[in-house]
Design brief:
Elements lengths: L6 E8 L6 H4 L19 H4 L22 E4 L11 H9 L3 E4 L4 H8 L4 E4 L2 H8 L5 E5 L4 E3 L5 E3 L4 H9 L3 H6 L2 H10 L11
């Protein structure tokens, strides 16, 4: 997993409430078995015509959008069914952070495990961001701070374990493996058999 470092980026603004995971990545594509090529399928039904031609007026088809690392969405982003393919598609397009007033819990969890930062902002901050659609924001995970285009800042919540993993660029298994020496030392000294029936 790529280490999450502070960055600055223009936002792609998609102020639609209740964008679900089937809109992010339609279910018919989930039969793909590898983890590559998902960025091309992001928002497929909004992004392409029936014949596969890009819709010229859709925001992700604009040249400038391809350089953006931040998506500004509406409320309740990522609702619907659980699928890791949604953060895969978003990160493979190039996004590193999503801004919204709320996220579906499972999408939020899947995102944090795939180095995509879901940033919850207040309705007031969200409104301010929408008023500066061509502005640039700064994201600093270490300080849990979002800097708005006007220079004001907003702190955002993130659990400390996910924060540590993203900053170090490791997933949950990678975090465990980093402690393999301590685990091995514990295994040497613990009882060779464990009585699981003993409540004492």
């Amino acid at each position: 997993m790529e280490k999450f470092v502070p960055f600055e980026s223009r936002m792609v603004v998609m102020p639609i409430d209740n964008i679900d995971t089937d809109q992010v990545i339609p279910a018919r594509f989930l039969k793909k078995t590898d983890r590559v090529g998902w960025g091309e399928l992001l928002f497929n039904d909004w992004r392409y015509e029936a014949d596969g031609a890009p819709k010229p007026d859709f925001v992700l088809n604009q040249d400038w959008a391809k350089e953006c690392k931040v998506l500004l969405a509406g409320d309740n982003f990522g609702c619907g069914s659980s699928r890791e393919h949604a953060p895969w598609a978003l990160t493979q397009y190039g996004f590193r952070a999503i801004l919204s007033t709320s996220f579906a819990d499972i999408f939020k969890s899947n995102s944090l495990k795939n180095s995509l930062l879901p940033i919850v902002v207040s309705p007031e901050t969200h409104k301010k961001l929408l008023s500066m659609p061509e502005g640039t924001v700064k994201v600093d995970l270490a300080s849990r701070t979002l800097t708005l285009p006007d220079g004001s800042t907003a702190e955002f919540p993130v659990d400390s374990f996910s924060q540590q993993c993203m900053l170090e660029g490791v997933d949950e298994l990678g975090f465990i493996l980093k402690h393999s020496t301590e685990i091995a030392a514990y295994e040497v000294h613990r009882d060779s058999t464990l009585n699981t029936l003993d409540a004492a």
